[in-house]
Every structure is written in C-alpha cells, then in structure tokens.
Amino acid sequence: MSWSALLFLLAMGQPPAARPDSIGEVRGRVIDAESRAPVAAATVVVRGTRIGTLTGDDGRYVLPGVPAGRPTLVVSRVGYTPATREVTVAIGERTTLDVVLTPGGTQLTTVRVAAEATEREQFRLSAAPGVMTVRGETLKRVPVIGEPDVLRVVQLLPGVVATNDFTAGYNVRGGESDQNLVLLDGFPIYNPFHLGGLFGTFIDETVGEFELMPGGFPARYGTRLSSVLNVVPKAEARSGVHGAVGVSLLATTLSLGGTVRGTTSWNVAARRTYADRFVSLFTDNQLPYWFTDVQSHIRHRFSNGGTLSATAYWGSDVIDASLAIFGDSTSAGGGRLAFDWGNSLLGVAYEQPLGARGTRWLGADSARVMQRLSSTGFGTTLDLGNGSLRFDNSLADRRAWGEVARWRGRHETLAGYEWSSYQLGFAATASAAGSDAILDVNNGPTAASVYVDHTVRGSRVLARVGLRGETVTGTGWQGVSPRASVKWFASRDLAFTVSGGRTTQWTPALRNEQAPVRVFDFWLVANRSTPVASAWQGIVGGERWFGASRFVRLETWLKDYDRLPVSNLFNDPDVQGDEFVETEGRSYGVDLLVRQLESQKLSGWLAYSYGVSWRDGPEGRFAPVQDRRHNLNVVTSYRPGGRFGYGARLGLGTGTPFTDVVGQLVRRRYDPLSNSFATQNTPVSREPIGGRRNGARFPLVQRLDLSVTLTRPGKRTWAPYLSLVNAYNARNVFTYIFDYTANPPTRTAFTQFPLLPTVGVTVTW
Secondary structure of 213-266 in the HEC alphabet? Predict the structure, then answer.
C-alpha cells in the first residue's frame, strides 16, 4: 500500500451512519487495461461522501452503505490515470462494477514510498514453506572465494549442507546433491558447477536474484526429490548500453546490458579463468586448466501485455596436458590427458495475459498462458593416454512446459504439462580392448507430466493443494504425487504452516561418495534396472515478523525415501545394470532462520540446522556423507553509510561421516621356483581395509571469513574488495591418509582451505 493511499484513508475516518432502507452495496474489481492483471491498493471512493476503500491483492473491493441512486465512483492508483464511473444503486441490492485503469503518469507531491520486501510479500501470499530469496546485490556482501558465487551463498542457507570447502555442490535437508532442481530463468541445468565442483557456473553480474525452495514446493515443479533453486537473470532497466568489468584472482568477467525503447531489455556476459596463465609467470610447472562461461538473456514486452524472453548459457572446462608432467618417469610415453566438461542451455518463454473473451471462457476475473521450450545439454570426456582409457557421458534434455493460470476472487488455479525427451550416452573404452567398448549405454526415454495447483487466499487461512501425474517410457512406471500446504495467520505478523507431499526423480547421478572431491559425475536416466526414486516429506513451521524488515522462521521436517539409488561400490564393470543398489532411508531435522533484510545498515541472517539422515541398503544401515548433525552459519553485512562496506561469515559444523581405514592387506608376489612369497626387492601391493561404511566422523569444522569493499562512485563506479577466507587459519580436516607400514600405524590429516586472501575489483557504468 502506498503512503498516499494510507494517509487518504486515515483522513477519511468513518463514514456517517445511513438509513438501512436507503442504501445498497457496490462491489467489483479494478483491472490493468494492458495486462488485464488485478490492480492492488487502488483507492475507490464515492464522490461527495466519505465512503471509500482500497482494493485487495486480487483487485477486488466492496463498498457497503452506498446511498441509493446514481452516485459516481472515483478510482485512482499511483501510476494510472484516475477513472470515474457512474453506477446505479438500488435499495438493499448489490451492484457489480468492474473498472479498468489505464497506466499513465500521476503528478505527486514529495512522498516517501517504501516498497514491500519480496520476503514479506511471500509471507502474505504464498503457502510454500521455507522459501529463501537472495538478491544479486547480496552476493557481493558475502566474503568470497575468488569472486561472488551463487552456489557458495546457497550453502549458507538453513537446511543446506556443503560436505567440504572444495565443493560448490550442496545437499538440502538430508538429500543427495543430485536431488536439487537447478533452474536458470525456469530452465534446467544439470551440473551447475565447474570441474571438481569448486566454483558455480552462474556469473554474478547477470544474477537479479535467486530463490531456494527447500521442500514443500508446488506441483508445477517435478523431476527432483529435495529442492528447487531458481536463478533469475538481471533485467537492465536503463536505456543505452551499461556494463561491468570484474577482475579477481580467479577470472575476468565482462557483462553488458541495456533497454531498447523501454520494451526490450537485454544482457550478455562472459567469463574466463586465467589460472593457467597466472601460474606460468612464477613456475615452469604447468596448470593446464581453465574454464569459460557465456550467458545471455533478452526480454521483449508487446503492446498487448505479452512477453517473449530467451535465455542462453554455454560453459566449458578444459584440461589439456601430457601425463609426463605428473612424474619423472618416462613410462607415460608422452600420453595425453584430456578432460572436457560443460553445460549448454537454450530456452525460450512466452507469457500472454488473456483478454476479455478468454477470461469469460474460463469463467475468470483474469488469466494468462505460458509456454516454455528448452534444450539443455551436459557432456564430459576423460581421455587418459590418447585413448588408452576413455570415459564419455552426455545427456541431452529437450523440454516443453506449458501452463494456464486463472484468477477468480480469492482463488488461483494453475494447470499445466511438462514433456521431456532425453538422449543419454555413457561409454568406457580402452585401446587395448580394440573396437569393443568396456561399457556402452545409450538410452532415449521420454517423460510426461500433467499437474494442477489450486490456491485459496482467505483472510486468515491460505491453502494450496496440488496433484502431479508422471510417467517415464522404458520403466513401466507411472506415478501420482499429491501435495498440499496450509498457512494459518494467527495475526498480521505471525503465521503457522503445515505442508506435505510426494516427489519423484528419474535422473540420478552416478558418483563415488567416498571421493572427497566431485571430479566426475555420470548422469543416467531410469530404466528397468535403474529405479525411479520417490520421497514423502512433511513440514511444520512458524514465521514471525518484527516490523517490515526482520523475521524469525522455525521449521521441522521429515523425509522418507523409497527406491533411492545409491552408487554400488562393488559393481562389476562387465555387468550393466549393477551401477546402483536400491536403498530406503529417512532424514529429519529442524531449521532456524533469523534474518534482517538489506533495508538496514546492518543486514544478514543466522541459519542453524539440526539434521539426521540414514540409508538402509544391502550392507545394512549407514549414514550418507551429507549427514552433518549440527550446522550454523552467521552471515552479516555492515554498510555505515560511507564508501566502505564490511562483510563477515562464521560457520560451525559437526563432522560428516566417512569410511575409516582399519588396516592394510599386504599382497606379495609368489615365486613358483622357491614356492614362497617374495619379501625383498620386489614391489609390495598394500590394499586398505575399510571399516563399517561411513562409520567414522571427521572432527568439528569452523571457519571465519571477512571482507571489505570500497565503493568510489562517479561516471564509472570502482569497487575494489578484499576477502580473507578462514581468517584465523582453522585446520579443518579434509581427508586422512593412513600408513600401516609404520609401527605404530600413522594417520595424516589433509586440511581444507587455509588462510586464503582474495582481492578483486569491479567497475560499473
């Protein structure tokens, strides 16, 4: 609500009493003339009286006690041309009058207007629990590793776990990292990080905001079990060409954007690392690795209110070297090490509000249609020794997603479909095997889904129910996933939410969970031997607001998994179909969020999570590697009003599980001449003996990161920054190396990030 409208209503006071036998009632809706969307907070007044009201979020208004006759209604809203309408009011009758407002300028006196925060709007209007929205500007306030990174900030949110410092991957509420649906402007990306997982793929200058739904998401979202992360590109509102250049120890980034004739916005950005060039300045040792990102977005608004947008992304990681650089032996023979990894995305979306004929046909006050088409690709190749051993994995996802949205009164209905065509390639070859592949899997299934979501917004209760039906060819599987969420407002600033439902996933990633760094992931699509996983989850929580920019949220959650595929550590490479073993499992916990929005000098959040996870498989019960019981992140930014801004992040967490090594098996070479095992001057192979799967835990981890940014405004704004990662050099254990040849045996700890300074500068214009 604008301040001018609020002051107007306060000045009106209470209308005088009128005789019941001389009045009627006028009700209706105020609608935007171009988009046909409802106009909220519009002022509706009976001319010459003190009778008036404001429209609600759905554009509706009710005026009781209107004198009978032919009074005139005056309807106004900032940004629209006021409208007057004469209406006939009969005694004791209800009269309906809908008013269409035309966008236009309004001359105002100086008024301070504070727009409602996105988080507050979500609190009022959305039944989805646990949603966390972070704007692009906030990325720059968090201490960085190299440069601002969306996925690194996601790791600091409640319910999210990062297993170590060296990964930008994340686990949400006990789920596996491949169970997160990651969307760029609504289009899916499969591996949203670069080789090894150290950095995310999103260029920070292109990010308008991102939204994480850690559970309880609507039926319109499918194909993943745990969460939905939607990264929204920045829309440049200024005419002309504007841009930014960012230089860090990691990479150089260039982004450009602008608006054409007020109807078309565009931006494009590119990033390239130069670690390979930087290292060559100081040493002859090679670091033959770099990655490149290119991202673009364009959006056009038509005169009929429709919008057409296109989003594109391309990323590539390259390692190109000789195996000889990894040792002083000539046995490598100069063989080539080649590792390529990359994502691609091209998506087009069109949204169109329906006109009067369409809304009448749907029996709605307003309606819109949406259609999206996308082609997403992921591919990776590992070539050791010019084909001596080669691994290939590619996944193409061509998707169509359409939806009809309908609003009538307090009701909102979304009905849609989603169709995907997959093309999967998964192969392992060796030159010694000749033309025969060690492993060759090709699969081209399709998946189809239909869904409906219905939301009812009452004065005290907000409820959403949904249903999603799905099927995948080649699996013999069909599924129905019900979902529901109810929010009850105990007061204007306090609400309680109960949510539950079922999610499914048929695109698992094959990885070795014992490897501390995610070097190589294989994506598969469900078939007769790879199951479609499902999870039932429930959430109960409460949220309390203190003013317009501060709130506390507490949620408890429970997830039960069925037919969850887990990598088979003992699979036979010669046997197709044993890459996974089916497990069941459970995760439960509590998440606490205390947040101060960015409207104040001091902003940030405190996120604490307690979680427990286990899986039941053929080997018995074990904890997954993301089972971090206690996790605390405190993120804060201080902007005192001058040129300097300060940021800090404190992280504390209990150790994650790992499989301990309890001994070594010595394998000696048998000498048939002496009928004995050689013990001297011969190679001795030592094979580690592992204990119970994930039966041990790393110690407590802790890290303090600090940053300072100096902003020098002008025609070009310079913003140099300095970040200190692990400011007091805490020695957090990354992994252990065991040596049982020593007496007694030894265990050596390798640590995660040491004290790591990062400097950079961003120039914008």
Answer: ECCCCCCCCCCCCCEEEEEEECCCCCEEEEEEEEEECCEEEEEEEEEECCCEEE
**Which residue matches tokens 């979902």?**
483
Cα–Cα distance measured from residue 556 to residue 541, given in angstroms and rounded to the nearest whole number: 6
- pLDDT for position 542: 97
Instruction: Judge contact between 701 and 652, C-beta under 8 A.
Output: yes
User: Percentages helix, strand, coil for the chain, rounded to the nearest 5?
Assistant: 10, 55, 35
CB atoms within 10 A of CB 79: 12
pLDDT tens-place string over residues 191-224: 888 866 678 889 888 898 899 999 999 999 999 9
Residue 159 zone, left/alpha/beta (φ > 0; ψ -120 to 50; rest)? left
Tokens of residue 459, six digits: 């004065």
- Residue 419: C-alpha distances to residues 225, 374, 445, 482, 491 (Å): 18, 11, 11, 19, 42
Residue 20 confidence (pLDDT): 45
Which stretch, 417-426, 537-546, 658-667, 710-719, has highest mean pLDDT?
537-546
CA distance 402 to 283: 55
- DSSP letters of 451-503? EEEEEEE-SSEEEEEEEEEEEETTTTEEEEEEEEEEEEEEETTEEEEEEEEEE
Q: Global pTM?
A: 0.81
Measure Cα distances from 670 to 674, 683, 687 in Å.
Answer: 9, 11, 17
Q: What is the pLDDT of residue 650?
A: 96
State the maximum Cα–Cα separation within the chain, in Å, rounded to a whole number.
120
* Average pLDDT, integer, range 553-582: 81
Amino acid at 673: L
- 8 Å CB contact between 315 and 380: no
Q: What are the two backbone dihedrals, phi and then psi, of residue 164, each rounded to the nearest 5 degrees?
A: -165, 175
The pLDDT value recorded for residue 516 is 60
In the chain, the amino acid numbered 427 is A
| Strands of the 83-86 sheet, one edge to the other | 52-54, 43-46, 72-76, 83-86
636 Cβ contact list (under 8 Å, min separation 6):
602, 603, 604, 647, 648, 649
Residues 369 and 354 sit within 8 Å (Cβ to Cβ): yes
Percentage of residues in the chain having pLDDT higher than 90:
40
